Amino acid sequence: MERRVYLDHAATTPVDPEVAEAMARVLREVPGNPSSIYAEGRRARALVDTAREEVAAAMGADPSEIVFTSGGTEADNLAIRGVLKAHRPDPDASGPHLVISSIEHHAVLDTAEDLERHAHVRVAVVGVDGTGRVDPRDVADAIGEATRLISIMHGNNEIGTIQPIDEIGRVARERGVTFHTDAVQTVGILPFDVRTLPVDLVSVNAHKFYGPKGVGALYVRKGTRIATMQTGGGQEKGRRTGTENVAGIVGLGSAMRIATERRDGEAEKQRRLRDRILEGVRARVPAAVLTGHPTERLPNNASFCFPGTQGEALIVALDLEGFSVSSGSACTSGKTEPSHVLLAIGLEREVAQGSLRVTVGRDTTESDVDAFLAALPPIVERIRSVSAEPLSASAR
Amino acid sequence: MERRVYLDHAATTPVDPEVAEAMARVLREVPGNPSSIYAEGRRARALVDTAREEVAAAMGADPSEIVFTSGGTEADNLAIRGVLKAHRPDPDASGPHLVISSIEHHAVLDTAEDLERHAHVRVAVVGVDGTGRVDPRDVADAIGEATRLISIMHGNNEIGTIQPIDEIGRVARERGVTFHTDAVQTVGILPFDVRTLPVDLVSVNAHKFYGPKGVGALYVRKGTRIATMQTGGGQEKGRRTGTENVAGIVGLGSAMRIATERRDGEAEKQRRLRDRILEGVRARVPAAVLTGHPTERLPNNASFCFPGTQGEALIVALDLEGFSVSSGSACTSGKTEPSHVLLAIGLEREVAQGSLRVTVGRDTTESDVDAFLAALPPIVERIRSVSAEPLSASAR
Amino acid sequence: MIERSEAARPEARREQQDLYSAAAVDHFTSPRNVGGVEEPDGKGSDTNPACGDRTTITVRLRDGRVTEARFRTFGCVAAIASASVLTELAAGRTAAEARALGPGDVISALGGLPERKEGCALMAVGALRAALVDAQVRARA
Amino acid sequence: MIERSEAARPEARREQQDLYSAAAVDHFTSPRNVGGVEEPDGKGSDTNPACGDRTTITVRLRDGRVTEARFRTFGCVAAIASASVLTELAAGRTAAEARALGPGDVISALGGLPERKEGCALMAVGALRAALVDAQVRARA
Lengths: 396, 396, 141, 141
Ligand SMILES: Cc1ncc(COP(=O)(O)O)c(C=O)c1O
Ligand SMILES: Cc1ncc(COP(=O)(O)O)c(C=O)c1O
Prior knowledge:
- The complex is a heterotetramer, with two copies of chain A and two copies of chain C.
- By secondary structure, chain A is α/β, with parallel strands linked by helices.
- Chain A has eleven helices and twelve strands.
- Chain A has two domains: 5-12 and 263-388, Alpha-Beta Complex (Aspartate Aminotransferase, domain 1); 17-258, 3-Layer(aba) Sandwich (Aspartate Aminotransferase, domain 2), CATH 3.40.640.
- Chain A is globular.
- Chain C is α+β, with helices and mostly antiparallel strands.
- Helices cover 50% and strands 19% of the residues of chain C.
- Chain C has a three-stranded antiparallel beta sheet.
- In chain C, β2 and β3 (65-74) form a beta hairpin.
- The longest helix of chain C has 23 residues, at 118-140.
- Chain C starts with a helix and ends with a helix.
- Classes of the chains: A alpha/beta, C alpha+beta.
- The complex binds pyridoxal-5'-phosphate (PLP) (2 copies).
- One pyridoxal-5'-phosphate (PLP) sits between chains B (71-73, 76, 105, 107, 153, 157, 182, 184-185, 205, 207) and A (233, 242-243).
């Protein structure tokens, strides 16, 4: 493959070489099942325990509060389905059983919808302002007598906006409602400490901080009532059964430890590169619309809409020149609608179609950024110039 | 670690070095998310597609019929929860909604129980004979008007008995009921072809055939109605969402391909070693009780009960001498009851407590078996001699 | 050793697979006949309701033949490439022949399109047909 | 490089961790005082209802002191080791002292037991206390 510039770290990150090596070593040398009590099993168990300590330490949690999952999607599903199952929502009490925001990841959004359809769960969706922020007062207003869970994400994966989860958590505490936050885009990237944050459940995902895909964790605060989603052999103290993904869990633990060590330095470095993109795009493509909050955003996230263009066309054109970026309206994945997040912040459908997300990472350099900034304007211009009467109504 | 003899291949197998290398290569060299349309993403997607073809080919399936999961437990849960969710069981029609056997893995058994408690699913449990075989006529008798799914395993993980799934499948077909089989202990080990077997859903698990832990698959025959258990980004055509465990899936595919190549030779070799254990134990420990079917059993499985002993004591004593084996009554895992399988085949509780499972694998040699056969009798004798009035009632 | 096993495994081939054919990429990066025909004889548009993409095609006709066709597309790679290649396919054909061009012609001229992108070829075809109908109506007026 | 990182990581320590302490293993593989005291002064049993394990202890007393205690255990490693070490702890103590021995004494004499194995120590203690009560009853009879 030619030299490429990977600028889609919010989608996934390459595996840290030390993490890959630790996993390869487990695959080669640790044959046991952690449930087995003989030597090979104990060794595998010890590795899982160590990883649990590493994940817990990074969040200020107790190891017993960490449940390993197969990723962020499962963590979100387990949090929502598990809490509602444990509470058996009262159909007669007033108000929603579940409160979410309009910019949640599909793992939360579609789960809420699925429970609405199949499990008689009532869902309230709290809106956001034009920068993608939830107002904690709206959350307070949404809570009813029947409300059992609030699920509002920490950092948004598309536009990077960070939610005031401390305030939302305080609202939840005051009203005695369990609070879940999808922190897949923040844990490992920003400080996150459950000793000070009023959160009860937190979704975490290894492949967003240089760990492997297919492994994540759910933090479950001691005393939180949660039922299991997947029943079986009783692993993870019955909260998530199935033979442990030992190599993956070791990868998650190591990645978490390394990410925590590098976190503050990386956040600062990436924020600088990110700002270089924000300013560079503003200067070179004046029509560009910044999406997300100007300051309360993930340090690695630069996201825009380019009116008159379409997301997939931008991505493919940039890909052909060696840049990997993404869009909230990639219509190849079968999703032909512009993203719900872009619509939720009030963008016109046609503007939202031209969305582009650029997310820097550990290996991103200034010259990568400058190469991207040089490549982008002619591509935007070319695509825009092909488009039919941009922003006007169809002639049909 | 000293030289050890690993004889617990039914619990898990070491990862094939070629599989470990293929996975390490993915971890090191393939940074992309399969959902991304740029080069790195397409490369990851191609690897997932190849693995899907490898798994499908091994079972005579079409690649579109393979859904990747996080293991056997999830495959079982998805099959059962998914089919019942898609069919919305009719509470008024007569008969059970779900028919299972009494010797299913906990991933099936506990899921049935959970659905009974939380989702108003009615479950019928079909018994087995003293060898652990289900009588297909009992399955036919259990089916009622409301029956939507039959879930009966192929090879039992504890006692090795193989079920007549072809006959059970024919019964299911005749009655128009969907049929799931947990083939975690057989796919990759025995021939399994969905073109000739009347099965609709099949659970598969990489770590039982020298692949990694934490990845499996569910075969879903075209046209089978199944809903998703885990909602989110829409991967696996919406049947199982969440970013794909790319390295794990590559491991599953390679392990499946290699297992299929080696299958018949290994089955024969392992059957010979297994028979050497069966005969050796019979000759040296006359009190040993064989569990499972004398001939219709997994080629790698030798399992017994030794009256007057207790499983954990046997395992620990053998572990101290370098042998790794397991028991259906390992009370350390928090399971203090003797296994439901051993009780289902009609063993007294106290006899069932002394169960021992020995499962050979690719690397097992004749001298491993002979070393085990030399070590076992004095251990059984020592533990038996400590035990208080074996087989009589408590003196209390 | 790794290299050998790489060569042997199907993935080595699969890894090369591209989303879009070379022809589609070429029509996307160097679209032909972008813009509008001056004083066109016919003009037509079509939209893809699934995604909001839109294509407008204008045509010039002489003696019942398409002498020029131009397009504008707001949409994805497949939408742009489809319209671009269709303006080439249409040129030189009689109006009846041009109206007979279907999405299959577009897709095969592009050397294939990814799954679920058939709608993009259909949109280009819809716009061209609308332009030709428009030309017919105007000619009668 | 791998070796260095191994040494630095906590897992290197954790990997050594054993299920049972050396003392528990020793009492399991070489149990002391197995069997029954001949013509015992007291005999007691206890079972662990959670798993069906059972221990029987017989004792001989001289001048109010335990001179000999023997056990039989049907059960797991912890059950056997607990009974074995308890027969040693009891020997030489007065009946009252022996009755005061609790599961904590057994567990610390074994250098610890795995989680969820406290019931095994309790069973040994229960059997010894039953034997001592039996001896007291017989002595009064
Ligand atoms: C905010 C957020 N939540 C959940 C997920 C789901 O994680 P995964 O796809 O790895 O299961 C992602 C990643 O795609 C994410 O960005
Ligand atoms: C028959 C059977 N079914 C299901 C499972 C569950 O697989 P896993 O624990 O890997 O999820 C196993 C393995 O333990 C098994 O042997």
